[in-house]
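Thread: "does anyone have the structure for this chain?"

Original post by V.I.:
We have the sequence but no experimental structure in hand. Need at least a predicted one for the grant figures.
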Amino acid sequence: MKPISTAADQIGHGRAGLNIVAGWNKPEYEALGLSLPDDHETRYAYAQEWFDLIRKLWASDTHFDWDGKYFKAKKIKGNPAPVRGSVPIINAAGSPQGREFATDNANFLFTPAIDLERSKGEIADLKAQGQAKGRKIDVLTFSHVICRPTREEAEAFAKHTAVDNADTDAIDNLVNLQFAHAHSFPHDLLAQIKHLFALGHGGFPLIGTPDDVAAGILKLHATGFAGTTLSFVDYVAEFPYFRDTVLPKLKEAGIR
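Reply from O.Q.:
Generated one for you, tokens below.
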């Protein structure tokens, strides 16, 4: 067997990571003729056995058999192995079962930044949960960038996308699907979550001038997030602002 993460890790000389998703999108399962278990215990038990098998493939130099509850295999061997013996493990989880899985296995846990005051306590709790198991867990989030030379231009474009032209049916469908089968987003902040989905799939909004965007990232850092992904509406047009102004400001603050 050649797990794709190790092939990518070899190609990238040790720069790959693995994002483990236990499954939540029921229509995707049904499209393939599969059933999504309703309970989180079964989903994460399946994910745990899968990851245990993957780790043994990474660590074993010889062929072996696997006789588990969810997986059966004969004379298997993983090749190539990760460059550093393993790769960083990422997981996004909101349910109690998911948080147990993440703090047992992951190096980085993704969680949305909807309310930064609430996020401070959540990050502290996740780190403490990992520490109780002898593990260091860093918490990441995801952000959506609308960067323009002036704040007025950026806010006008945000209104254009998330208010004037929002696809409310699609947003309702996606949010309802998330709330039915996943616990990643806090259910008591529904209106705010719908707005953020219209703006950028639920990401923390980084809207304004390059200085505003830099200040927003610094605020995430001060909250306790170890990092964030960044999505752009128009990467080609917007990234020069980010590269020329935002990145130097982050570097000055000791953030890379």
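V.I.: this helps a lot. The first strand starts at residue 18 and ends at 20.
O.Q.: and The beta strands are 18-20, 64-67, 72-76, 89-92, 108-110, 138-147, 204-208, 227-232.
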